[in-house]
Fold this sequence. Notes:
Distance between the termini: 14 Å
Number of domains: 1
Largest sheet: none
Helix content: over 70%
Shape: elongated
Order of helices and strands: HH
Number of helices: 2
Amino acid sequence: MSSFLPFLLIFAMLATLIILVVGLINFARNGPFYQKHSNNLMRARVIGQAVALLIFALIMGLAGME
């Protein structure tokens, strides 16, 4: 289980990065997609960051127990 958590953390960080890049590109273009989905992209990024931080805290907590 503990070897699975780093892969899960990397996945969460990459997902957050992809959402951030999509948001930045759409912000620069300022098209109809950006106007319709900008808040959803921001919420998804914040949720992705929270998940990545929780996984990181779990890894650090488990490392401290050893």
